[in-house]
């Protein structure tokens, strides 16, 4: 079990955070892989407006997710850590809580949102955030025990 916690759990979390972070970076410039801005806002944001989020905001979220992946690698001792151990461990708990918060709280985002967003949020966005939050929690607890 220790091997899984030290290898598989952080690897899955890191890959997911980098992929999702990369998508947010792309969304700073384009609605890809969705066809257009209206489809994007209906599916990802839950509105019919066609107004993409400010590029800086999308980029900031993308960079924060990628930073979470780097933090995961540091607390897992896969790469050298920066700063004190306690701060990295605290950061990993914060990452887990933010992801869990988005996952659980995400179901509240359905109120007044488009049908497309409801479907994707209930099937993918919120459950994925809960799973990633739980994985982040496992990484944080394992780091606390070292």
């Amino acid at each position: 079990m220790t091997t899984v916690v030290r290898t598989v759990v952080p690897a899955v979390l890191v890959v997911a955070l980098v992929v999702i972070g990369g998508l947010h970076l792309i969304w700073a410039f384009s609605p890809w892989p969705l066809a257009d801005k209206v489809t994007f806002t209906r599916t990802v944001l839950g509105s019919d407006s066609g107004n993409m989020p400010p590029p800086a905001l999308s980029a900031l979220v993308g960079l924060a997710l990628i930073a979470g992946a780097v933090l995961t690698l540091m607390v897992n001792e896969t790469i050298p850590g920066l700063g004190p151990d306690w701060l990295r461990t605290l950061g990993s708990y914060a990452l887990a809580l933010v992801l869990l918060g988005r996952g659980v709280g995400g179901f509240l985002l359905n109120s007044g949102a488009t049908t497309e967003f409801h479907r994707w949020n209930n099937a993918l966005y919120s459950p994925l955030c809960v799973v990633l939050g739980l994985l982040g929690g496992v990484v944080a607890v394992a780091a606390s025990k070292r």
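The helical segments are 2-27, 37-45, 55-75, 85-105, 115-144. The chain has a mean pLDDT of 95.
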